[in-house]
Amino acid sequence: QVQFVESGGGLVQPGGSLRLSCAASGIAFGIYHMGWYRQAPGKQRELVARITTGGSTNYADSVKGRFTISRDNAKNMMYLQMNSLKPEDTAVYYCNAPSRLDYGSNYWGQGTQVTVSS
């Protein structure tokens, strides 16, 4: 019954910005740490940013200083502000709860495509 719906992706030039949104339902959102993942063509899905229930954040080295993860527990929403985008950021971006994945969940939403190209 859990559902994650990602939105906000699109085509952007290098150096541009995008803001991704994740709407969660069917989950006690406020008690789960959350994360943004991405999967580039031919590559493994990777965790790029994580935010705890209390708002502490961690980032992959590849996006540190450029991406900002945030959440609004009252609205069951999570966001990823992406600045200074690079072609290597091109991927499908997904949101999920890392603890659910660790527990054995294999549910993923549809994701949202981010393409960084001139």
What would you note in describing this structure?
This protein has 118 residues and is mostly beta strands. It contains 1 helix and 10 strands, in the order βββββββββαβ. The protein is globular, with a radius of gyration of 13 Å.
The shape is: globular
- Compute the separation of the termini in Å: 40 Å
Mean of all residue-level pLDDT scores? 97
Count of alpha and pi helical runs? 1
Largest sheet, spatial ordering of strands: 2-10-9-4-5-6
The count of β-strands is 10
List unreliable stretches of 5+ residues.
none
* Biggest sheet details: 6 strands, mixed
Please state the structural category. Answer: mainly beta
As a whole number of angstroms, the C-alpha radius of gyration is: 13 Å
Helix content: under 10%
Element-by-element helix/strand order:
EEEEEEEEEHE
Topology:
Blueprint: E1 3-7, E2 10-12, E3 18-25, E4 34-39, E5 46-51, E6 57-59, E7 67-72, E8 77-82, E9 91-96, H1 98-103, E10 112-116
Parallel strand pairs: 2-10
Antiparallel strand pairs: 1-3, 3-8, 4-5, 4-9, 5-6, 7-8, 9-10
Task: Write a short abstract of this structure.
With 118 residues, this protein is mainly β.
Structure keywords:
mainly beta; globular; 1 helix; 118 residues; 4-stranded antiparallel β-sheet; 46% strand
